[in-house]
Amino acid sequence: MLSIIDNSTVKHLRFPFSFFLMPVFLFALSQAPTINWLNTVVAFVVLHLLIFPASNGYNSYQDRDETSIGGLKHPPKVTKNLFYVTLLFDLAGIGLALLVSIYFSLFVLIFIIMSRAYSYRNVRLKQYPFIGFLTVFVFQGAFVYLMAFTAITNFSVEIFSSNTIICMVVASLFMGSVYPLTQIYQHQADKKDGVISISYKLGYFGTFVFSAVLFSVATIFLFYYFNMNNRLVDWALLLIIMLPVIYHLSVWFNKVRKDTRHANFENTMKMNLLTSACMNVYFLILIVNNHYTWF
Q1: Domain 19-291, what architecture?
Q2: Which of 102, 179, 245, 290 is 20 to 30 A from 77 (CA-CA)?
Q3: How far is CA 99 from the centre of its chain?
Q4: How does 215-226 read in b/e, with b if 16+ C-beta sit within 10 Å?
């Protein structure tokens, strides 16, 4: 079994890339009224160490990129082993999810199906700019929040509350604001592979504007949410912690506006890392603040 996990396969699973998806899980954890810590740990392992890496690997297996992709500047050639490992990870994830609940396991299965539909050559939702964007917008944002919240709090009618629905919308808006920026350096490589990304449709200038608009809308929704729950300090903290992101994005946009060669892999990964780090720190603070009275 271990013999199929070769160096190329491990690289294409892109475990560190799960760090970029972590804010949604931490967001759900920070807003959960009660926490089942055992289920939370299991759900985190299922999503971030099995399902998300499997999704990355399957996407690489279908794309067989020769140029830079998210988390890999020089991707190695994929092998058949990668397909088998992604299948193994998915099955392990579904099985382990059953330890949390049947509902969580079902949600994991739905996520896997949509992830495959996004990448699989005979369906390939990613080739369509708006359908591909909406797939990521919904299933890496709101749906991941729903999955995490279901595992953390145990499945109940609480997941259909107005608070949860607003947070799901915010999660999608945040993911939607980041996603086009991750495509900005891949316009030609994607087009060569038959993929017309939302970023390609928007152009360099439009990508930055679109991302900024979605991020702004997300902060407005959060203002409404925190104001409704008498927690405006949490919203003010978001603005403070995200200042480095706003500044760096403005500087990067100005550079790309003058020379599109700045819309490259290195700058994109720096932007992703900074955004994810700030968001993770923010939600970790909220987790401590909301669940430990000594803070």
Answers
A1: Orthogonal Bundle (1.10)
A2: 179
A3: 24
A4: bebbbebbeebb
